[in-house]
Amino acid sequence: MLKPGATIGILGGGQLARMMALAAAPLGLKCHIYAPQGDNPAFDVAAAVTEADYDDEAALQRFAAAVDVITYEFENVPARTAEVLAAIRPVHPNPHALAVTQDRLTEKSFIRDLGLPVPDFRAIDSLDDLKAAAAAMGGFGVLKTRRFGYDGKGQAMIRPETDLGAAWEKVGQAPSILESFVPFDRECSVIAARSANGDSVAYELCENEHRHHILARTTLPAAVPAALGHEAMAIGEKIAAALDYVGVIAVELFVAGDRLLVNEIAPRVHNSGHWTIEGAETSQFENHIRAVAGWPLGITRRRGRIMMDNLVGDEADRWEALLKEPGVHLHLYGKAESRPGRKMGHVTRLLPENG
Description:
Layout: E1 7-11, H1 15-24, E2 30-35, E3 48-51, H2 57-65, E4 69-72, H3 79-86, H4 95-102, H5 104-113, E5 121-124, H6 127-136, E6 141-145, E7 155-158, H7 164-170, E8 176-180, E9 186-194, E10 200-202, E11 206-211, E12 214-220, H8 226-242, E13 247-256, E14 259-266, H9 276-279, H10 284-293, E15 305-312, H11 319-323, E16 328-332, E17 343-351
Parallel strand pairs: 1-2, 1-4, 2-3
Antiparallel strand pairs: 5-8, 6-7, 6-8, 9-10, 9-11, 9-13, 11-12, 12-15, 13-14, 15-17, 16-17
Helix pairs in contact: 1-10, 4-5
């Protein structure tokens, strides 16, 4: 267990690292951010920074020696980077959790082997594999690269009329999976946190709306039966336990009729959990810091009805008007440049429970 005054090392310098550092400060914990050269808004709120590439082993070793524990804001941490750091300091979540969630085939197989509901999927290593899998799935599916895809990147929709050769080219002929198309009613997610001693908590299921493959809005309570909400929370905690996980984990889910299907796992704090900063007794960021520090986890109870909107691209230019709106909590990430599709901030609205 860390003591107040200890330093948590964070890989990545974006908004998630920034919000982790902001959550650590009131607890008397310091954060040291490690990130390559670039626009790193987390640097602005950190006690210390290291600007170096993830393959710079000398810099990694100096960074690890300067902190007490290490975590990260993104899942695509190079395996060698994790190995170098783990040889010097504890890394949470553990490298095994990284390995499982960095590869969609490994991840989907892991979820299925836990006995959890998951869409049908097939490994795709060639155009012939894609043709056979598409035929088996009735011509409908989603082709996804096994590694490094996010916000809709590295994906291609498959329909009966799709040129499969063009779809295979779109994903760069990279090792992929084809997932069956799910005619879902809603997209939801559940955020869970787990500590090293096995204690775990989960936040209430939230409902997500995506635009152009980017999360646009999260609302709570989700418009699903209470039983599905409880099932989602149990799924999040079961996955965390199976990974011997320490920290916050997000599980994205499809709601299809009266059943849930696990879409994917994010081994980190998550965009759909930003509502927790004002909308829960303990934010996802504070619970992540508590978990990696070995501290007791905080209560996840929701406060009222919640609506969280991402500010993407020039939407952040509305900051003045948003500040004039009663009950709005504005978060700008301090990024130097606004670009289409880039998450620049978010706003959370807390509404009366029965309003």
